[in-house]
Design brief:
Elements lengths: L18 E3 L3 H7 L5 E2 L19 E4 L28 E3 L6 H16 L4 E5 L8 H13 L3 E7 L6 H13 L4 E6 L6 E4 L15 E2 L23 E4 L3
Parallel strand pairs: 1-4, 3-5, 5-6, 6-7, 7-8, 8-10, 9-10
Antiparallel strand pairs: 2-3
């Protein structure tokens, strides 16, 4: 049975009291915390221990699931794992405003001064890219700062406007630094639910790998690194 208020699941999180709106620097000041959180999630882990980004701390950003960027075609619209995250800090912003991106940029600049090995950011624990301009914001700043890298998943179709922007960023920066996988998509470098059976690309074997963390083969994401490894063409996740 799917958890939570059915009406809220039509358009937003089932935990509205955990949402903070950031439409100004004053909103940010009143919130009193950072948008980018250093991971305290046992599944994610804290410091990269394997692969190209060893010693980078892992940070994450959560938007409001469904309401901020998630396309209604998302395979997990109703069953979003945000349904099981009653304490997560979620952010939303007026998508026409620039201030949310300005705040993120300021936080990133401060973190890069703090961490000599750079930082790796999980986009997005909840929510998705809410516009092409926002997706390109991430592409631009990853390109601007060599010690910054990101990884995550998007439910936007590779053929959509936002999907196209993401693909352009990947092609320009390389997947290892802009490791955004398309969810439940019949493309390489995707991340799919185990019950979703995408068509294989013609003459290409995607050799899907079930998430090692879910199989208890590794302690957490930072000790695995497959999701930001371009040699792993398709990651399969057991439905949460």
């Amino acid at each position: 049975m799917i958890k939570g208020n059915k009406e809220l699941r039509r358009y937003t999180t089932i935990y509205p009291k955990t949402v903070t709106t950031i439409n100004s620097w004053n909103d940010y000041k009143n919130y009193g915390h950072k948008l980018l959180k250093q991971s305290n999630n046992s599944k994610l882990g804290k410091i990269i221990g394997k692969g190209a980004f060893v010693k980078k701390p892992l940070y994450s950003l959560s938007l409001v699931e469904r309401e901020m960027g998630c396309p209604k075609s998302c395979h997990h619209w109703d069953s979003c794992y945000g349904n099981n995250m009653p304490f997560a800090h979620r952010f939303k912003t007026d998508k026409r405003k620039k201030v949310f991106k300005d705040i993120l940029l300021t936080e990133i600049q401060d973190l890069l001064k703090k961490h000599k090995f750079g930082i790796h950011i999980r986009l997005h624990v909840l929510g998705d890219f809410y516009s092409s301009d926002y997706a390109w914001f991430w592409g631009h700043i990853v390109g601007r700062y060599p010690k910054l890298s990101v990884y995550g998943y998007t439910a936007h179709s590779p053929k959509s406007k936002i999907g196209h922007t993401i693909k352009v960023a990947i092609n320009m920066l390389g997947f290892d630094r802009f490791a955004i996988r398309f969810s439940n998509a019949d493309v390489e470098l995707s991340a799919n639910s185990t019950e979703y059976k995408p068509r294989l690309l013609e003459n290409v074997s995607l050799n899907p790998i079930v998430c090692p963390e879910q199989l208890d083969k590794v302690a957490n994401c930072v000790s695995c690194g497959l999701c930001w490894n371009s040699n792993a063409k398709q990651i399969l996740f057991k439905t949460h």
